[in-house]
Every structure is written in structure tokens, then in C-alpha cells.
Design brief:
Distance between the termini: 30 Å
Order of helices and strands: HHH
Strand content: under 5%
Radius of gyration: 11 Å
Number of helices: 3
Structural class: mainly alpha
Helix content: 55-70%
Largest sheet: none
């Protein structure tokens, strides 16, 4: 959950709620199991803006 809470603020709000909706969740406090948690982390990591290596 700590990793998820670190990534979440970096994601645009509409994308964040779209990901939660995709999993049938209303908030991060309602994650039912570790499988859903892993999927959330994967999706939010992909949605977070990448830092440039410049």
C-alpha cells in the first residue's frame, strides 16, 4: 500500500479514478486482496509520468 500511495499523487486525477473504477473500487481503502493490489500498482506505475533521463 505504501508503494501505491507514493505513485497515486503522480497520476492525473481522472486516470486515477478510471483505474479504481476498472477494479470496482471507490477508494484505496477498499482493496479486497493482494491480487487487486498488485494490479493497481502495475496500472498506476504505467500511468505515472516518466522522468526523463536527460
Amino acid at each position: 500500500m505504501a508503494q501505491l500511495r507514493k505513485i497515486a499523487p503522480e497520476i492525473p486525477e481522472t486516470k486515477f479514478y478510471s483505474i479504481l473504477d476498472h477494479h470496482g473500487l471507490q477508494s484505496l481503502g477498499n482493496v479486497p486482496n493482494f491480487g487487486v493490489l498488485k494490479n493497481l500498482i502495475d496500472e498506476m506505475t504505467q500511468a505515472a509520468p516518466r522522468e526523463s533521463a536527460a
